[in-house]
Amino acid sequence: MIKACRSVLGDGVPLDPREVFIRDPGSLEGTFPTMADRCKMDTSPISEKVRQIAEKELRETPELVKESLAKLRELIKADGKIKINSDDDNLMIIFLRPCKYYPESALELIKRTLKFKEDNGSLLNGLQPETEKEAMLTSDVVNVLVDRDQNGRRVLINKCGATWDPKKVNTDQIFRIFYLVHLAAMLEPESQVAGVVVILDFEGLGMKQVSGFSPTFSMRLLNFIQEAMPLRLKEVHIVKQPFLFNMVWTMFKPLVRAKLKGRLFFHGDKMSSLHKHMDPNYLPADYGGKLPKINYTAADWFPEIEKCRKHIADWDTFKLEK
């Protein structure tokens, strides 16, 4: 059986779920893939289109990769306090790509990442998919689009409005789910290069949700994405936010630095505004796109998170020695 279920083809053109099918060679008829087929991580090597992005934006060439890997290992060894598997090329590249192959910058990113993990040990120590299995299976607060956008970027959705019941899934749980998703995404070579986009959907936001946020959560989340996330965060889009959103934004705004501020966009209900950044041909109808409405949740992605168990367990052992 040939499965046409990758989010991105070799030429970087996303598959339209209205056209994707699985064809059994023994049958004359094609059948539409299940969500289990579509909610898949893509750990295959980068396509030619994405390779060109890596070379243009990240300076990535075979020669520089080899040189930067060697230098980063030297720096880690010289530091003497970083406990991480520096012999793993793939792991080191996770840190080198967002730093455009500058070893010194990658070393600092490693330190910040491990320091963040240490500072938030009460939430992150021993974290495994099972930790938030119930929340991922029963809520629809965090999701990942099965289709990448026009630039090959992964798109994460966080529904912060009426969909979210803080009494069932609190902000600590939301953060842990974010963290698990980012641990999985960093294993996708195309996501490492093309980066990720976040859509924060505040539709139906009420006082119940507003009271669920806290300055601690705001500080933790922004510190993570601005300092300690080894992924290229390209854009954050805030959509469908009502006037009440201003109360939430008051907590976040003072913590947003210049770099993130330049990648943060507010659209309200104007999906045409969102489409100036994200091509509607690659978006679901939920956001004014031409693809079908989202009919899957984090529950459909959970088996893929489970497959990352070893990586997540290894990540838990990385630390800064005292």
TrEMBL record:
PROSITE patterns registered for this protein in UniProt: CRAL_TRIO
Coiled coil ranges: none
Pfam families membership: CRAL_TRIO
Any GO MF annotation of the entry: phosphatidylinositol bisphosphate binding
Species, as recorded: Frankliniella fusca
Domain CRAL-TRIO positions: 129-295
UniProt cross-references to PANTHER family, sorted A to Z: ALPHA-TOCOPHEROL TRANSFER PROTEIN-RELATED (PTHR10174), MIP26555P1 (PTHR10174:SF212)
Protein name, UniProt field: Retinaldehyde-binding protein 1
Gene Ontology cellular-component annotations: membrane
